[in-house]
């Protein structure tokens, strides 16, 4: 057994969210006794313990771990807590029950007011709770909301009862008559309340708060009632009877609601009055019903009356209402119209809150007793008298002023009058006080005089009858009179009541509306069936929720926001800060592809509990963003009569391209009207009605604003014809289009239908002549000569005197400042007068042509309008198939109309409900995620744009972390404006190489297992077919799938070298491609620089640099392939007719919209069979190298790790084949995937604490780029070693032995390691004074281990001449791979006789002096460095130590202050201990009682 318990304890280790709601969801299958009183975390633990067969504990008195909040009025008088059973027995000698079956358990006003007088007097919160229960009991047809498979509750015929929310151990689920909770032996009860979008389990105890006199402070008292008098008619005081039982359900409901309201228990210190908190942000009705409670603050009487009449039944007469029995009209006798039935059937409950009327006189408001602020339920409204008046007698007009007015003045016309006084039928717990002098107050103002007389006569006849009859019917008449009296008392005059209305509440039931909800942390429910409504939508963490709402009528959207109050967590034991930040909701209405610099909020909510708001929108389809900000968990509810769709951005984007269900109604009416219009007889009478019906079918249903639309409404028919003409021209062939236009010209009375648009009329040529300031005249002699010349020219061939170019300039409108164009072009041959005459001739010819054209157009119009044409079957089928025959063509017609006239869409609700105007593409895929992955590339593809288009992107993934995307223009390499969550519309224009779209995710905390992440990209474009992933062919492009991204991950441990190289990536490119690169070092403060290089014909060229600190992310690196090689041809024919058209430069191909004019089809005779064969391009090599710009200071442990890696045997055994050149085996990236090159096996694996760098490169799968680790230096090193061994066999073994001996002598027996600051100081010296200076302590540094400074100095010492370098046989690029030894050149240098030098004494003396000089210089340099170290390095550390010592305030405290603080700590401990002991003592005393 102990083994099982240990296993259970080990299974209880799981993560708990501290901000989780402390009340778990209520479920019917979780009412077992072993789960009784457990919160969410404890319940999950109990489920695990239950699986391990651990027995539940025995029954005991349940102690509530949560703090039980109390209102201010209770806290002031609280003395102690007593169990309910003990209090009922000791104080009243009564038993305690949860409920009692007395007439269905319905609350009675007299019982409640007489039983709990002190509680109702002091606590406003208890008054509100009991009033809410009283109102809900009187609601007809109540249904419990938010039921699902694991929660089913049926309400009995008696309606709502408070006991339905109470559960005790053994209570059966399902509700109805079987819901009979009994007493709990351990005192723990479950109260089911709605909170944060679900029915919750609120656990409360049966402890009752009492004052010093043991009087309950919450509603827990036996019911008191009046007994009837002994004899009817005797006025004696009724006796009061105490019930033998005490109901427990009011106490439990109040305590559970107080846990959700969470009043501030520490607010009594600053407040002197005893009134309860206002609880403005807590809604009792919402918790009891789960419905949406809307609060209206309406001061206008007419507006409030309209709202009430729209929500409650309105009183009306029956058609046969002419009998005396028809006196009081209830809801069941009301006869409603179709419109009224729709209003009444809506699931809503209306109530009013009236202000405090304690200071008002008793009869100021008939029917309501002055008292506290009270809630009143409205069940009916009327503005008619309850008795239908007699029909008015027919009286002559002249008698109206004499007889009728006199009868009204003397009260003789009341039987015929119909006063329209407004009344509301209301009821409430505190509406009537049971004081004796207020029992007979009733509303009788609308009862007519005749009705009262008839009632009096009826009562008198009954009194004068037989005594037996009176005795027999006394009880019946008294009961009927009392019922009528009570019912009449419920009618309150509206005008008097409206002045006292504080708030109007309307409770909307979600099950009877279009309803959806969302939350920050919604509950996960697994159901068997499909859920019709999207409920509990999980809200994204860093983006808004999106909403689509549409309807053909005015849209009313109601939104409520509820937030987990932090004091609820505080009462549950979770500490919170003092300041409580509210939750905020902003509703922003927007339009796709229309950007706004400043978002316009449509609604706003700010609450710490519960609040709601109502929005009204025009008919149509609307899109909204819902921004919610809250530090705590929140829940959102949306309710409307229109269609709702709530979700993430991609869901709403997909819904935006679909057609609304109600849009077909408009389109069907348009199609029907067109069909009737073309089939009607073309007579004058019939055609007018048909035209009116057809023109009316496409009239706007919203306001037509000429400034917004751009056209006057009188031009609507012309606009519709232009749209129809444009659609037919796009869809039909030329012959079909001409045949259709010939018929429609006649039917639409438009001769221009189908013709190209007429050019705008130019400026009158006469006006141009009048503006010309030239006033020159022609002399008479010249005029005679000109006439003679003209006569001669009439016989000869006419030749214009003025050339066309000059005439065009003469007829051009002048530009300011106006000058004479005639004088400007005049000369001796063509004077001003002659130019004017020639211009006049041209103007006259133009005017004559205008007149002829007008005559021609008139003739054409008469011909079109008088032609006898009809719709042939072919023409009718063509028109119906392409414009009016189906919903698709009708949608295309209206979309064409709105595309030609964009402003007109604001005058039609149908404009937003159509489909076919937007383009949508969705791409999805998966990508692997490794355990330590921090950057997840999703996709990387090129989109081609074939025309100006606006686009919205959305990226979603199964990983619940931050994901984003970037868009780059491949022609310029510039990033497009980043969208993020500001939702900017991308505006694309056609280009040559398309746009690269890159998507990736960032992991905040790496997971420790391998898994796959699913991603989805949604692309919504303003025009379909213009923006997608395709092959970008010139004529017809073919769409392809968006490629996923593949990531290369390399971990490079840092080996100190002269250039501080951290690692590199090599990329081979065969076509235009873009890659992403990321480098991250284990040191967050390391400054890194990424260098992009390429090698062309052996020449290394640097292309770009990118720098960062700790981490470098280079999202877009544009890589170009090698230039295309020359084409090789295989000739099959000698014809070269079309060779020029085939030979195009593939590097300059643009999008489809940029293509040249289509070439004509070549004939078979002219067709070339020359087959062009393109040689495969040679991959172009790119290199990405990561460099630490200022070096990487390492710790001692990291230096030891570097030495271990350097001296490992794996490095010595490194062997790799010689790399093949690209020329031997050219191929594409796909070929390289099949035949992967040799990859160098890793000689080390980074361990925790190592200094290493993560290199990651992302490329498109199956793209034109292939990346791998840059191992050229390793391969060259291996090749050099093989060359050394081939030239001198055994050299590598001898070198290995020498290195081993050196390690054993100098490195294995290390002296005491210096501090880490020593290496930092040396690096600082190296950076400041250079790396190539000689130092005297080289041997000491060799013993300590290599450093970046000493290593670089040793390298420069070893390479003293070119002759010494050739013995090393190592390229310059590989010097950073070796540990330099200063004596190595002298040990391996061979003796050559020709180069031998005989040393003379003079040469030795000169070398000695030179050596001593260098030693002295080195000593001086060492002293300078030591002085610098003492002043700047060690001195700085000393100053820092002094500052750190000053920070320890405790060290400077005097002994007296320390003693005082110790005494304070001891006093706090003593006080805490005493409080604990007193609490324990009280519990023990309570158990003894």
Report on this model:
It contains 42 helices and 45 strands. The protein is of the alpha+beta class and 1489 residues long. It has a 6-stranded antiparallel sheet with strand order 11-16-12-13-14-15. The protein is flat. The N terminus is likely disordered.
Main pleated-sheet profile: 6 strands, antiparallel
Given the structure, what is the number of helices? 42
Radius of gyration: 48 Å
Low-pLDDT regions? 1-12, 51-58, 226-237, 321-345, 435-452, 457-476, 1127-1173, 1209-1241, 1307-1370
Separation of the first and last Cα atoms? 38 Å
- Give the overall silhouette: flat
State the total count of DSSP E strands.
45
Mean pLDDT, to the nearest integer, reads 77
Which percent range fits the helix content?
Answer: 25-40%
% residues in beta strands: 15-25%
Class of secondary structure makeup? alpha+beta
Strand ordering within the main sheet = 11-16-12-13-14-15
């Amino acid at each position: 057994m102990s083994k099982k318990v240990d296993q259970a304890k080990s299974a209880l280790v799981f993560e708990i969210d501290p901000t989780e709601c402390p009340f778990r969801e209520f479920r019917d299958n979780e009412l077992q006794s072993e789960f009784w009183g457990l919160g969410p975390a404890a319940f999950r633990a109990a489920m695990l313990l239950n699986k391990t067969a651990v027995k539940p504990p025995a029954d005991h008195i349940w102690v509530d771990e949560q703090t039980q909040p109390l209102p201010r009025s209770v806290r002031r008088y609280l003395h102690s807590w007593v169990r309910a059973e003990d209090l009922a027995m000791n104080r009243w000698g009564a038993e305690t029950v949860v409920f009692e079956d007395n007439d269905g358990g319905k609350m009675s006003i007299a019982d409640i007011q007489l039983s709990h007088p002190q509680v109702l007097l002091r606590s406003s919160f208890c008054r509100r709770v009991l009033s809410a229960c009283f109102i809900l009991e009187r609601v007809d047809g109540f249904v419990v909301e938010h039921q699902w498979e694991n929660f089913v509750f049926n309400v009995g015929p008696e309606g709502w009862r408070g006991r339905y929310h109470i559960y005790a151990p053994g209570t059966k689920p399902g509700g109805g008559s079987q819901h009979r909770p009994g007493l709990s032996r351990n005192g723990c009860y479950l109260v089911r309340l709605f909170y944060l979008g679900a029915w919750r389990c609120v656990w409360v105890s049966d402890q009752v708060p009492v004052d010093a006199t043991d009087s309950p402070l919450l509603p827990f008292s036996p019911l008191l009632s009046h007994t009837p008098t002994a004899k009817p008619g005797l006025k004696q005081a009724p006796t009061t009877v105490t019930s033998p039982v005490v109901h427990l359900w009011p106490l439990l409901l109040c305590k559970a609601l107080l846990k959700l309201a969470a009043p501030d228990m520490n607010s009594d210190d600053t407040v002197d009055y005893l009134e309860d908190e206002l609880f403005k942000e807590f809604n009792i009705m919402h918790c009891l019903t789960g419905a949406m409670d809307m609060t209206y603050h309406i001061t206008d009487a007419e507006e409030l009356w309209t709202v009430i009449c729209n929500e409650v039944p309105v009183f009306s007469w029956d058609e046969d209402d002419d009998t005396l029995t028809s006196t009081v009209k209830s809801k069941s006798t009301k006869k409603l119209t179709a419109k009224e039935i729709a209003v009444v059937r809506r699931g809503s409950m209306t109530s009013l809150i009236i202000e405090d009327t304690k200071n008002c006189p008793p009869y100021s408001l008939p029917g309501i007793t002055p008292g506290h602020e009270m809630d009143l339920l409205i069940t009916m409204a009327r503005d008619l008298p309850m008795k239908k008046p007699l029909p008015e007698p027919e009286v002559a007009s002249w008698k109206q002023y004499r007889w009728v007015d006199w009868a009204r003045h003397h009260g003789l016309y009341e039987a015929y009058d119909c006063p329209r006084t407004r009344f509301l039928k209301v009821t409430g717990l505190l509406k009537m006080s049971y004081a004796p002098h207020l029992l007979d107050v009733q509303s009788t103002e609308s009862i007519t005089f005749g009705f009262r007389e008839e009632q009096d006569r009826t009562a008198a006849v009954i009194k004068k009858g037989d005594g037996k009859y009176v005795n027999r019917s006394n009880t019946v008449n008294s009961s009927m009179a009392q019922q009528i009296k009570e019912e009449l008392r419920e009618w309150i005059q509206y005008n008097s009541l409206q002045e006292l209305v504080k708030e109007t509440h309307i409770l909307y039931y979600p099950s009877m509306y279009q309803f959806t909800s969302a939350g920050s942390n919604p509950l996960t429910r697994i159901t068997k069936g499909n859920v019709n409504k999207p409920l509990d939508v999980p809200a994204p963490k860093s983006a808004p929720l999106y909403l689509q709402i549409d309807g053909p009528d005015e849209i009313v959207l109601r939104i409520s926001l509820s937030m987990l109050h932090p004091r609820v967590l505080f009462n549950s034991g979770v500490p919170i800060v003092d300041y409580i930040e509210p939750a905020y909701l902003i509703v922003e209405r927007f339009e796709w592809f229309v950007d706004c610099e400043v978002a316009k909020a449509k609604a706003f909510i700010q609450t710490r509990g519960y609040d709601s708001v109502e929005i009204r929108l025009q008919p149509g389809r609307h899109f909204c963003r819902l921004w919610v900000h809250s530090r705590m968990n929140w829940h959102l509810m949306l309710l409307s009569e229109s269609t709702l769709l709530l979700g993430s951005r991609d869901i709403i984007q997909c819904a935006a391209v679909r057609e609304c269900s109600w849009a077909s109604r408009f389109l069907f009416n348009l199609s029907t009207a067109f069909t009737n219009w073309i089939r009607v007889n073309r007579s004058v009478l019939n055609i007018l009605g048909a035209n009116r019906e057809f023109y009316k079918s496409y009239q706007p249903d919203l306001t037509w604003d000429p400034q917004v639309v751009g056209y006057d409404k009188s031009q609507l028919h012309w606009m519709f014809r232009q749209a129809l003409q444009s659609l037919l021209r796009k869809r039909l062939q030329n012959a079909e289009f001409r045949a259709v236009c010939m018929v429609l010209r006649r039917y639409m009375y438009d001769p221009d239908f189908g013709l190209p648009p007429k050019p705008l009329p130019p400026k009158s040529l006469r006006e141009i002549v009048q503006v010309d300031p030239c006033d020159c005249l022609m002399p008479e002699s010249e005029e005679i000569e000109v006439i003679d010349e003209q006569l001669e020219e009439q016989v000869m061939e006419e030749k214009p005197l003025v050339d066309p170019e000059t005439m065009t300039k003469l007829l051009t409108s002048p530009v300011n400042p106006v000058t004479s164009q005639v004088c400007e072009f005049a000369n001796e041959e063509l004077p001003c007068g002659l130019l004017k005459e020639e211009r006049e001739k041209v103007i006259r010819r133009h005017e004559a042509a205008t007149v002829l054209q007008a005559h021609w157009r008139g003739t054409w119009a008469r011909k079109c309008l008088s032609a006898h044409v009809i719709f042939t079957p072919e023409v009718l089928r063509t028109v119906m198939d392409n414009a009016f025959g189906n919903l698709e063509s009708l949608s295309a017609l209206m979309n064409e109309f709105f595309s030609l006239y964009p402003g007109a869409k604001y005058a039609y609700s149908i404009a937003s409900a159509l489909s076919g105007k937007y383009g949508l593409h969705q791409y999805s895929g998966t990508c692997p995620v490794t355990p330590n992955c921090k950057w997840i590339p999703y996709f990387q593809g090129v989109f081609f744009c074939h025309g100006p288009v606006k686009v919205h992107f959305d990226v979603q993934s199964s990983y619940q972390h931050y994901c984003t995307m970037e868009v780059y223009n491949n022609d310029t390499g510039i990033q497009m404006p980043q969208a993020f969550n500001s939702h900017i519309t991308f505006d694309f224009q056609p280009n040559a190489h398309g746009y690269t779209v890159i998507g990736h995710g960032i992991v905040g905390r790496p997971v420790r297992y391998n898994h796959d992440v699913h991603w989805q990209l949604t692309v919504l474009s303003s025009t379909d077919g213009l923006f997608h992933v395709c092959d970008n062919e010139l004529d017809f492009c073919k769409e392809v799938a968006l490629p996923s991204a593949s990531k290369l991950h390399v971990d490079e441990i840092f080996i100190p070298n002269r250039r501080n190289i951290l690692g590199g990536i090599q990329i081979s490119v065969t076509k235009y491609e873009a890659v992403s690169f990321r480098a991250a070092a284990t040191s967050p403060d390391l400054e890194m620089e990424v260098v992009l290089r390429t090698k062309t014909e052996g020449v290394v060229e640097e292309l770009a640099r990118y720098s960062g600190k700790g981490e470098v992310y280079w999202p877009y690196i544009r890589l170009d392939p090698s230039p295309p090689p020359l084409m090789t041809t295989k000739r099959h024919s000698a014809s070269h007719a079309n060779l020029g058209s085939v030979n195009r430069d593939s590097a300059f191909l643009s999008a489809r919209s940029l293509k040249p004019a289509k070439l004509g089809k070549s004939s078979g005779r002219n067709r070339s069979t020359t087959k062009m064969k393109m040689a495969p391009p040679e991959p172009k090599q790119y290199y990405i190298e990561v460099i630490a710009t200022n070096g990487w200071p390492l710790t001692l442990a990291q230096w030891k790790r570097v030495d271990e890696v350097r001296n490992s045997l794996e490095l010595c055994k490194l062997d790799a084949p010689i790399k093949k050149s690209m020329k031997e085996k050219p191929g594409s990236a796909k070929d390289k995937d099949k035949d992967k090159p040799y990859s160098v096996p890793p000689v080390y694996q980074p361990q925790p604490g190592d200094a290493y760098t993560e290199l990651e490169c992302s490329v498109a799968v199956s793209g034109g780029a292939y990346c791998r680790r840059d191992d050229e230096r390793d391969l060259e090193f291996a090749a050099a070693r093989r060359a050394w061994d081939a030239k001198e066999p055994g050299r590598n073994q001898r070198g290995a032995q020498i290195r081993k001996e050196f390690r054993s002598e100098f490195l294995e027996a290390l002296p005491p390691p210096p501090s880490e600051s020593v290496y930092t100081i040396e690096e600082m010296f190296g950076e400041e004074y250079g790396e190539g200076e000689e130092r005297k302590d080289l041997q000491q540094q060799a013993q300590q281990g290599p450093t970046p400074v000493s290593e670089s100095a040793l390298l420069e010492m070893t390479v003293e001449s070119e002759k010494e370098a050739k013995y090393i046989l190592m390229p310059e690029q590989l010097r950073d791979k070796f540990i330099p030894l200063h004596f190595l050149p002298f040990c391996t240098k061979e003796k050559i006789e020709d180069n031998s030098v005989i040393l003379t004494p003079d040469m030795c003396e000169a070398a000695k002096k030179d050596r001593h000089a260098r030693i002295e210089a080195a000593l001086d340099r060492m002293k300078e460095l030591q002085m610098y170290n003492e002043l700047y390095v060690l001195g700085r550390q000393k100053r820092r130590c002094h500052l750190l010592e000053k920070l320890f305030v405790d060290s400077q405290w005097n002994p007296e202050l320390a003693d005082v603080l110790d005494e304070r700590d001891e006093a706090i401990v003593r006080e805490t201990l005493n409080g604990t002991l007193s609490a324990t003592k009280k519990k023990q005393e309570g158990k003894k009682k």
